[in-house]
Amino acid sequence: MASNTMAGGLVAGSHARNQLHVLHGVDEERRPPTRESTTTDKICRICGDEIGFKDNGLLFVACYECGYPVCKACYEYERSEGNKSCPQCHTRYKRHKGCLRVVGDEEANYDEDLEDEFRLNKGQRDYNQNQNHTNGAAIPSVTASVEGKDFEGEKENYNNEEWKERVEKWKTRQEKRGLVTKADDGGNDQDDDDDYINAEARQPLWRKVPIPSSLINPYRIVIVIRLVILCFFFHFRILTPAYDAYPLWIISVICEIWFGLSWILDQFPKWFPINRETYLDRLSLRFEREGEPNRLLPVDVFVSTVDPLKEPPIITANTVLSILAVDYPVEKVTCYVSDDGASMLLFDALAETAEFARRWVPFCQKYSIEPRAPEYYFFEKIDYLKDKVQPTFVKDRRAMKREYEEFKVRINALVAKAQKKPEEGWVMQDGTPWPGNNTRDHPGMIQVYLGSEGALDVEGKELPRLVYVSREKRPGYQHHKKAGAMNALVRVSAVLTNAPFMLNLDCDHYINNSKAMKEAMCFLMDPQIGKKLCYVQFPQRFDGIDRHDRYANRNVVFFDINMKGLDGIQGPVYVGTGCVFNRQALYGYDPPTSEKRPKMTCDCWPKWCCCCCGGSRKKSKGKKKGFKAMLGLGGLYSKKKMMGKQYSRRSSGPAFDLEEIEEGLEGYDELEKSSLMSQKNFEKRFGMSPVFITSTLMEDGGLPEGTNPGSLIKEAIHVISCGYEEKTEWGKEIGWIYGSVTEDILTGFKMHCRGWRSIYCSPKRPCFKGSAPINLSDRLHQVLRWALGSVEIFLSRHCPLWYGYGGKLKLLERLAYINTIVYPFTSIALIAYCTLPAVCLLTGKFIVPTLNNLASIWFMALFLSIIVTGVLELRWSGVSIEDWWRNEQFWVIGGVSAHLFAVFQGLLKVLAGVDTNFTVTAKAADDAEFGELYLFKWTTLLIPPTTLIILNMVGVVAGISDAINNGYGSWGPLFGKLFFAFWVIVHLYPFLKGLMGRQNRTPTIVVLWSILLASIFSLVWVRIDPFLPKQTGPILKQCGVEC
């Protein structure tokens, strides 16, 4: 990434109107861009280093069978710690002279090479034993993958005693020969340390930690047993109808079958759960060596916000400050803030944030504080003196806290000023009218703060670049809300910095772990799997949630169970924030394919025979294909290959303009020219921007050679214009996908369909933390929006039920995506099933006939299997039983309220074009801790669950009263009905608790509507009563005379 982007002035303009205004002075003189690119001919396919040569000057060849390129260090590591075989042909490695001896090698020349073996293995063995042996037991470690296949490490070849005995024998032999004396011990310590460091740097950057078999195997066995029991249970339920309550029986069976299918969709994607562990020290040894240029790849960070009055600027400022203070090379980090509301309040707040960052960033780096968002650092209840040894820390912390409080006061003053907009509109400090006074009709705006050309910190060091972006908006254009804003950030970042990776954060999600980017780089910069990853997803963690998490805001079951299960298949789904993307994956390219092993040729036929059989044609075809791959332009017309991004494509070199590429095709026939290079095809996909198109061909990022700041700013304004995406594939195949309010699920689904895989990274210290609504109404509206997005996807062409079957989406991954879009429809079955207990109690009927012994066994076995599955799931995941129970409760609460409304709203929106919005009216919140938890906001979503609670309570009272009146014989059938009624009430208890509030008062309108609906339903049912036999003959009345 070049370091020459522009800083200083706000630039606003509209490409369609051919306008470009610099509202503050912009310095035109900038340093020319510099770009380092190194090319090597022979690269190790495991670690990415040069293979090197042997002592005789020949290239080192690890495998003599297929010649797969592996360096000597990786060869030795594979023989000593891995599978001892070639990653490509799986032939066992033969031992080279002077290399380590492992079990299974031939015993010839034992003494000749033992000295080299001891010298090379000395530095690594003690370390590996300390790592892999705890409590006297050897623990196998699982390391990174080779050619997409994971391999497991084996136990040490020798234990401590065997190794010491082996070394002593070697020393005895050497002393007898006079080659070594006792005084020679311990020499060349520095060389051994260097060898150890180099060997450590070549180790995998991460490892896969499988769930212990003692935990996962019983879990899988119980799942299979539960599936078998479920089949026998349905067999019994379908073949034994309740004739006296036939309608209730039919409804209950349909609901139970739907619940069973939903369980299958949710359960089986959790069949292969895994954990992952990263090695940040190895990442530093490999890419951040002292005395060498830092080789970590740049990252562009996206922060999106819409309305600063609803999303407080102080929260956004803390997110930005945590990004600017991240533990990553400052010249390789750029923070882009998208202001989709064109608010001058956010613009001024970012200017204040940039000024405060000049003092905050060096303070964070000097004392290594965590977290690096000042609001949460200064006010969290921790021992801030822990591990701090500098005597100046306390003094500097007090001064910094005072400066932060002054910074908050200035932000609060800006917010107070923004509450009332002047009639003539906002005016900037220099008297210029604010371009975004009309939020629906304004030009695009860009302002660059800090960076190499901006202000330095108080210690005179460079700071990461901060860029304010507000895309152009005009009446009559579709802007696609957050997805459109994110796509605008993708384009403007590609023009200004073009980092190969992008971190996406919501404005209320700050970086809680300053090494978060390095955690992602352990996967994205892995030489084996890095190029095949579309993104690295981190779990969402939240601040400010009550201790009991009444409404399951933490969503622990999803992030610690479901996501780990998906990580073992094709990768986790994208959840909208806390995700580091591979830029190439967002451009709609296919993942690179591994080079296939060349086919074996038969030596029994002469060479000319092979040529006659088509060898010449294949060679010519391969030559053309290779030329296309070299340019990165092969297969422009292939939809499946998505512009033919091949693994062998070289795009780390300088980018060329499209015209220059066309000039390089001279000498080829016209047909080949047209297939290789078509500027119109690029423009149809990416839009009318040559600079942006050129950036898409640069796989490792960086800016084109010879670009100047003025032209880049003008091009950046162009790519955020409102009409740029017209007649392109933005939002269809490229970038964030349009068509749903949950664009995150849709975007990740498209990537997985192309064959990309994702990684779930969950370090011990959470990398990102955010805020979540903790009161009942806001939580239900949040769930409503998610469910509405799933319904929209279900009714679109991107529905996982029928989309992408010709792609590379794995079956279990497809089941997981199907589950994410059909779960709102479970609300229909759920609300019917929660109503059945009350109906049974009021009518005296039941959905199950009299049980025999065999039927009782199936019922008991089903309930036991459900309980055992949950317990075993908690064992391997580490989730607490309280979190699991809260999740079960809110599944019912959300299902009978928000999910039900989402289904009807989605059907109205997609089929009838009616967009229904549910408004929330807030009352005053309590100032005490978690006061918002007791804040009540009226919403129609509260009516269905309240009605269900009243119905079941009335049913319980009616059922008990009936049993008392009818005597002892009626108590037996009553228990089954009461069990289901209490099941509903217990699951809805958090809802009832939130409805009552702290003062145990409920708004009159909720009580009136709920009682009215429950009463009407009960009276209508008693009046109709379909279970009483209907007389068809004449009506006979008692005459009153004794016959």
Label this structure with key terms.
1043 residues, alpha/beta, ten-stranded mixed sheet, three-stranded mixed sheet, 21 strands, disordered N terminus, manganese
> Strands across the major sheet, in which order?
2-1-11-12-10-9-13-17-15-18
Proportion of beta-strand residues? 5-15%
Class from helix and strand fractions: alpha/beta
Instruction: Give the helix tally.
Output: 32
Number of strands: 21
Instruction: Evaluate the radius of gyration.
Output: 34 Å
Helicity range: 40-55%
**Largest beta-sheet details:** 10 strands, mixed
Q: N- to C-terminal separation? A: 108 Å
Question: What does this 3D model show about the protein?
Answer:
Its main location: membrane. It comes from Fraxinus pennsylvanica. Its EC number is 2.4.1.12. InterPro entries: Cellulose_synth, CES_Znf_RING, Nucleotide-diphossugar_trans, Znf_RING, Znf_RING/FYVE/PHD. The protein is of the alpha/beta class and 1043 residues long. Strand 3 and strand 4 form a beta hairpin. Helix 5 runs antiparallel to helix 26 and helix 9 runs antiparallel to helix 11. It is globular, with a radius of gyration of 34 Å.
